[in-house]
Amino acid sequence: MDTRNKILTLDAALCLPQPLTVVTGYFDVLRADHVRDLRQARATAPERPLLAVVLPGEDALLDQRARAEMLAALRMVDYVVPAAGSGLELLQAALPSSQWVRLEAADQRRSRQLMEHVRNRQAP
Questions:
Q1: Which segments in the chain show pLDDT lower than 50?
Q2: C-alpha span between 61 and 86 (Å, rounded)
Q3: Where are the domains of the chain?
Q4: Predicted local distance difference test score (pLDDT) of residue 1
Q5: What confidence score (pLDDT) does residue 79 get?
C-alpha cells in the first residue's frame, strides 16, 4: 500500500467519521519521541482513528509534504493532513467530539535540543 494515500486534504479530513484522536505538531525532524507520543495517543482510544495534523514550521528543516509522508508511513497513524493558515481552527470547530493531543510545544523544545546537540558536536 502506498502510505501517501493516507494524506488527506483539509476538506477530506473535515469529512472523517467521528470521534477521532487528533494529534497536532510540526514533526520536524521526526524522532523516536514522536513515535512514542503517537503510540500513546493511539493507546488511549484504540478504537478511534488517529489523525495527525502537520503544522507549518517557521524554521522547519523538511517541507510540510515530506513530514506528512513520514507520518503516513507509521502504522499507528490512520490519516495525515497538512494544515496551514486557518486549517487547524477549521478542524477544531468541525471535530469537537475528538480527543486532541497538542505536540507543538514539545516539538519546539525537541528542535532546540537537537540544534544545541549539533552545535555542541561541532564545537572544537
A1: none
A2: 22
A3: 3-122
A4: 56
A5: 96
pLDDT of amino acid 37: 95
What is residue 35's three-state secondary structure? helix
Q: What is the pLDDT of residue 82?
A: 96
This prediction has a pTM of 0.89
Dihedral of alpha carbons 102, 118, 72, 69, sign: positive
Quote the CA–CA distance of 103 and 57 in Å, as a whole number: 13
Which cell goes with 4?
501517501
Q: Quick one: how far is CA 15 from the chain centroid?
A: 18
Q: How far apart are CA 70 and CA 74, in angstroms?
A: 7
List b or e across 98-121, with b for residues whose CB sees 16 or more CB atoms inside 10 angstroms: bebbebeeebeebbeeeeeeeeee
Element (H, E) at 90: helix 87-94
CATH code of domain 3-122 = 3.40.50.620
